[in-house]
């Protein structure tokens, strides 16, 4: 199946869909989305892992899982946020940050090519606008080893987690300003990262303005917030957008200071969990076959796109 060109880049205003924070949209012209992938079900995998402060050790884990997934017939493998490095000291990741054509990402491009597999690499430490900041970037690589698209995390995690610790992602990370959706052999993909999950308007825009069929949510949720909200938020995003959701998660203790919730999961457009690892600590991957005819069936039987009375920024409602 031929892929349409991925080069188009449109501001949201041009598509009459201004995101209220001034965020732009980058992706295919929307007319191409419906035809992105309507053939046989595609086998995808969602990874769960415990990244550490060693780039080579993390790559070894990712490489092993990619090769195992390829042997299982997986054509698209999704890794969690900060898959390549989680440090124990403030500022470590900024010092390691590289451009997308740097040696770390090129190593993963070679892995995708060698495995004949698309990779979703969520939460890469991309070199930022200055020496004190990085971008938290979700990178999509195709099976030829080419970076097809990237998304810089928009919503940064500046939170005082009850009973846990204070997180200030913006101290070392610059927020992105572009919403990204892209066609692939696995459907039209909406790219997000972790804390974005708590902002449903982003997912509404991806679905209703830019026709996403599959939402990617690579994450490193804290144990406290994950136990309370992880699965219910993911299922809500699937149900309200009628999209598949693939959420790769970091799991367990990375170091003395940081622990992630785990629970990598794939959810169908009806909100049903269709793939999940057996526990929240194991390193491995779960597999599911994405059938885009199910997306269309759910949307046809419950045509919420036709019934919506306002757009995602609520501007068409009357305020009193």
UniProtKB/TrEMBL annotation:
Domain of life from the UniProt record: Eukaryota
Record-linked SUPFAM superfamilies: Carbon-nitrogen hydrolase
Gene Ontology molecular function, alphabetical: hydrolase activity, acting on carbon-nitrogen (but not peptide) bonds, in linear amides
Record's signal peptide: 1-16
InterPro entries the UniProt entry points to: C-N_Hydrolase, C-N_Hydrolase_sf, Nit1/2_C-N_Hydrolase
Ranges of residues in domain CN hydrolase: 42-292
Keywords: Hydrolase, Signal
CDD domains from the UniProt entry: nit
The protein, known as: CN hydrolase domain-containing protein
Organism this protein belongs to: Setaria italica (Foxtail millet)
Upper classification of the organism: Eukaryota, Viridiplantae, Streptophyta, Embryophyta, Tracheophyta
Gene label: LOC101772530
């Amino acid at each position: 199946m031929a892929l349409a060109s991925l080069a188009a880049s449109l501001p949201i205003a041009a598509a009459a869909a201004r995101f209220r924070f001034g965020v732009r949209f980058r992706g295919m012209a929307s007319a191409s989305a419906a035809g992105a992938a309507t053939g046989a079900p595609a086998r995808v995998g969602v990874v769960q892992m415990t990244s550490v402060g060693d780039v080579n050790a993390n790559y070894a884990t990712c490489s092993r899982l990619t090769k195992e997934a390829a042997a299982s017939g997986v054509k698209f493998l999704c890794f969690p946020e900060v898959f390549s490095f989680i440090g124990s000291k403030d500022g470590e990741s900024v010092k390691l940050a590289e451009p997308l054509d740097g040696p770390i990402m090129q190593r993963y491009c070679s892995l995708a090519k060698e495995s004949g597999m698309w990779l979703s690499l969520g939460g890469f430490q991309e070199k930022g606008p200055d020496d004190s900041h990085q971008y938290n970037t979700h990178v999509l690589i195709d099976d030829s080893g080419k970076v097809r698209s990237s998304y810089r995390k928009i919503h940064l995690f500046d939170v005082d987690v009850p009973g846990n610790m204070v997180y200030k992602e913006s101290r070392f990370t610059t927020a992105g300003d572009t919403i990204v959706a892209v066609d692939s052999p696995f459907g039209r993909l909406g790219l997000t990262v972790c804390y974005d999950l708590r902002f449903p308007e982003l997912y509404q825009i991806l679905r209703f303005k830019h026709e996403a069929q599959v939402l990617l949510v690579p994450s490193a949720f804290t144990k406290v917030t994950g136990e309370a909200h992880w699965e219910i938020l993911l299922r809500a995003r699937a149900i309200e957008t009628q999209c598949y959701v693939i959420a790769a998660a970091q799991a367990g203790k990375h170091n003395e200071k940081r622990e992630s919730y785990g629970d990598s999961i794939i959810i169908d457009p009806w909100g049903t969990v269709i793939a999940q690892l057996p526990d929240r600590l194991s390193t491995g991957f779960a597999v599911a076959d994405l059938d885009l005819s199910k997306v269309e069936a759910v949307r046809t039987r419950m045509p919420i796109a036709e019934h919506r009375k306002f757009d995602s920024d609520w501007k068409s409602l009357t305020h009193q």
